[in-house]
Known about the structure:
Layout: H1 11-20, E1 24-25, H2 31-43, H3 46-49, E2 51-52
Parallel strand pairs: 1-2
Protein name: ABC transporter substrate-binding protein
Keywords: Membrane, Signal, Transmembrane, Transmembrane helix
Transmembrane segments: 20-38
Amino acid sequence: MRYPVESADLSSFLLRAQGSGAQVVAIAGSGTVFINAVKAAHEFGLRRRQTVQ
Length: 53
């Protein structure tokens, strides 16, 4: 699934990725958007069941 690169809120995309059952969730981006996406993934618990790259 793709997400808008400059989106300020990736919560809905991360929750869909979490619910998808995928083993790996890849986050493509840079700067603040990437940092916030990784932080949000950690807050939602993606790292417990899935690999975040």
